[in-house]
Amino acid sequence: MQIVHTATVRHPKTNPSWCARIFDAKAARTGGIVRRVVRDVEREIGRPAFVSEVSRRGFHLVECGGQFIVICNAGKMIVHT
What we know:
By secondary structure, the protein is α+β, with helices and mostly antiparallel strands. 37% of the residues lie in helices and 19% in strands. It has four helices and three strands; from the N terminus they run ααβααββ. The protein has helices at residues 16-24, 26-29, 38-44, 47-56, and strands spanning 33-37, 60-64, 67-71. The chain has a three-stranded antiparallel β-sheet.
């Protein structure tokens, strides 16, 4: 388990370009998939800000194995097991 001290966590508003770069990627613009390591998201902008941004765009967010997987498409999502 990794301990993240609050002094090392950036406030969401101090690094908006990091989040903007994710959603400016070709995959995001064309309805594809982008993924990021959870600890990187938490360090750069924080989980709540990231979840909020994904939701604001109408995308889907999955977390698995320490990764955030963003499906950059607002269509109906069906999970097959």
